Amino acid sequence: DQQVKQNSPSLSVQEGRISILNCDYTNSMFDYFLWYKKYPAEGPTFLISISSIKDKNEDGRFTVFLNKSAKHLSLHIVPSQPGDSAVYFCAAKSGNEKLTFGTGTRLTIIP
Amino acid sequence: DAGVIQSPRHEVTEMGQEVTLRCKPISGHDYLFWYRQTMMRGLELLIYFNNNVPIDDSGMPEDRFSAKMPNASFSTLKIQPSEPRDSAVYFCASSQGRGPSGYEKLFFGSGTQLSVL
C-alpha cells in the first residue's frame, strides 16, 4: 500500500524552463512533507520541506506547494539548470512517525 | 565530519549466503535508519534506532533480516540466507534527534548496491 505516490517515473525539461514534480498522498494524518534529491551513486539529500499549516514554502529556485484538500504536493524548480538532473523523492510523516517515501521521479534537464 | 559511511559500496553474492552491511553514522546523531531502495517501492524504511535501541522494525521484510547497533558509531544489517529478491540498494541514514516539527532532516550514506545471484 503506497501512501505516497509519484506517478511520473521520469520528466524531461529544457534548461531555463520550469520543472514541476508532483506527489500525491493518501494518509490525511500526514502533517509534514519533504523533498529529497538523489544523484547517481550517492545517497538522497534533503532539499526542502513544508508543514501542513502552510501551503507554500520557497527556497531560492525551489518552491513546494501543498494542497491539503487534494492531498497533493508539488515541487517547482525555476529556472531549471543542468545540475538539477537527479531523482527526486517526495516524503511525508505524521507526528513523530517515520518518514514514508515515494518511488521517485527522475528529472532530466536538457541543455 | 565525513558524513554517514557505509560499506561495502557493492556486494555480489550467491543465493543462500550471508550478507552483512555496515554503517557508521555521523558523530553526535542519535537516530539511525536503514532504508532499502527498489524501483517498485521507492525508499522503504526497514528499521530505525534511537540511542542504539531499536524503535521500529516493522519494515524488516522477514526473519532473514536482522539489524544491530552495538554502540553509537556502528550498525549492521544482516541478511541470512540471502535471496535474489533482496537485490536492491540499501541506505543507512542518521539524524540529530527531533526538532519542533518532530523531525530533523536525515543524512544518508552513499548506499550499498546488493546483488544476489
Describe the structure in brief:
Chain A is mostly beta strands. Chain A is built from no helices and eleven strands. In chain A, the strands form two sheets. In chain A, strands 2, 4, 5, 9, 10 and 11 form a six-stranded mixed sheet that branches. A five-stranded antiparallel sheet of chain A has the order 1-3-8-7-6, with no helix packed on it.
Question: What this model shows, in words?
Answer:
The complex is a heterodimer of chains A (111) and B (117). Chain A is built from no helices and eleven strands. By secondary structure, chain A is mainly beta. In chain A, strands 2, 4, 5, 9, 10 and 11 form a six-stranded mixed beta sheet that branches. Chain A has a five-stranded antiparallel beta sheet with strand order 1-3-8-7-6, with no helix packed on it. In chain A, strand 9 (86-93) and strand 10 form a beta hairpin. Chain A starts with a strand and ends with a strand. Chain B is built from no helices and eleven strands. Chain B has strands at residues 5-7, 10-13, 19-24, 31-38, 42-50, 53-56, 65-71, 74-79, 88-95, 107-108, 112-116. In chain B, strands 2, 4, 5, 6, 9, 10 and 11 form a seven-stranded mixed beta sheet that branches. The chains are: A mainly beta (111), B mainly beta (117). Chain A binds chain B through residues 2, 4, 6, 32, 34, 36, 41-46, 49, 51, 89, 91, 93, 95-96, 98-104, and chain B through 4, 35, 39-45, 48, 56, 91, 93, 98, 101-103, 105-111.
Mean pLDDT of chain B: 91
Largest sheet of chain B: 7 strands, mixed
Terminal CA distance of chain B reads 36 Å
Secondary structure: helix percent of chain B: under 10%
Which percent band covers the strand fraction of chain B? Answer: over 45%
The rounded Rg of chain A comes to 13 Å
The run of helices and strands of chain A is EEEEEEEEEEE
How many β strands of chain A by DSSP?
11
How would you sum up the global shape of chain B? Answer: globular
Structural class of chain A: mainly beta
Strand content of chain A: over 45%
- Rounded to the nearest angstrom, the radius of gyration of chain B is 14 Å
Task: Report the structural category of chain B.
Answer: mainly beta
Run of helices and strands of chain B: EEEEEEEEEEE
